[in-house]
Amino acid sequence: MQQAQQLSHEDVAAKARETVDRAIQRNVPDLPAPVELDLEVGPTPKDVVHTRGTMKLYRYRPLSPEVYRVPVLVVMSLVSRPYILDLAKGQSFIEYLLLQGFDVYLTDWGVPRREHKHLRLDDYVTDFIPECVAVVGEDSGEPDVSVIGYCLGGVLAALYAALYPDGPLKNLVCFTTPVNSDGMALYRTWTDPAHFDLDRLIDSLGNIPSELMDASIQMLRPFQKSAGQMKLLDNVQNEAFVTAHLRFDRWAADHIPFPGETARQLVNDFMRENKLVRNTFELDGRRVDLGNITVPFLHVAAQHDHIVPSAASQDLVKLVGSSDKSEIVLKGGHVSLVAGGNAIYRLWPKLDTWLSHRSV
Q1: Coil, strand or helix: which one is 132?
Q2: Count of Cβ atoms closer than 10 Å to residue 164 Cβ
Q3: Does residue 2 lie in a domain region?
Q4: Is the Cβ–Cβ distance between 119 and 113 less than 8 Å?
Q5: Per-residue pLDDT tens over the stretch 70-109
Q6: Which helix (H) or strand (E) holds 240?
Q7: In 10 A of CB 278, how many CB atoms?
Q8: pLDDT digit string (tens) for 179-206?
Q9: Is position 9 within any domain?
Q10: What's the CATH code of the domain at 157?
Q11: Which domain holds residue 147?
């Protein structure tokens, strides 16, 4: 018994040494990794069909012999890289849509430079998105388009739909889309003018630095990053887990600067004055009434979303004027809802079922 117990201790010690060695090899430059990890992202083949400034409009190449008539335009957030929706083969939301027979386009807003600090929500909603919608129509040869917006991209998509009720929009889908800033208590506290001089920050820097965007996300759950690193260490022997985890980590740390005037507008009109839910939000001199949205509408929320809590998004379905509207609340967080192992079985098939019937 003593010998078996001694051997067990030795086995544990050996495993611990091996785990630490592998972790060190992966994180120290110039040391050969035990297994070469493929961390490439955005593998689904695509073509650039339109550019304007830093913005690119992609059309993904079809993966199914039969394609639904109505194309899909994915509108991304202004502060996140779009490859979260195309992480890797077999783990790509974009790839999944293509395999189901959808014709997929995506807006990549690019990285704004200081000369883009003047851009406002008005520019994105009343200029860039209508331009992309028009290009999708010309490129696909179809008069209609379905729009999917993620997070702040969902806000942009909803604002567009509200201002252009007679446009070519066929269906609207929003993922984790905030409309009520009362449900974002921490954000409201941080942006309180009593201790946050937004104007000085923007006037001095032009755009909100990506490091500040990342820090604000991390402060929502201060120990989440440390917990993730511990989980990574626990699974360091699992190559598939390590690869997927590092891809997510790469995206989470890969924020882009926020155009200054857009940030000023969102903080003042949305976060501080909550104009969107109060029906007083204006763009380009026009009041944005979400009740003008009458196309089939779907909102998808995550039960454990700490970035856009349920209290911030649950009013969206009530405000939209569509008769065909619904909300799906699924297990998961803000990112795991749309990407990762669980999204493959939870969100993606439900979206396919909802959108396919409305895309013929």
Answers
A1: helix
A2: 17
A3: no
A4: no
A5: 999 999 999 889 999 998 898 899 999 999 999 999 999 9
A6: helix 239-252
A7: 9
A8: 999 999 988 888 899 988 999 999 999 9
A9: no
A10: 3.40.50.1820
A11: 46-356
Residue 17 domain-assigned (yes or no): no
Position 20, amino acid: V
Place of tokens 């961390």: 39
Instruction: Return the structure tokens found at 113.
Output: 């430079």
Q: Domain count of the chain? A: 1
- Cβ(57)–Cβ(105) under 8 Å? yes
| Calpha distance 150→298 (Å, rounded) | 12
Max distance between CA atoms of the chain, in angstroms, equals 82
Report the C-alpha dihedral over residues 219, 224, 225, 231, rounded to 10 degrees.
180
| HEC letters along 186-204 | HHHHHCCCCCCCHHHHHHH
- Report residue 311 as tokens: 């209290």
Do the domain assignments include residue 30?
no
Instruction: Determine the Cα–Cα distance for residues 179 and 313; give it in Å rounded to an integer.
Output: 6
The pTM of the full predicted model, rounded to 2 decimals, is 0.85
What are the catalytic residues? 151, 305, 334
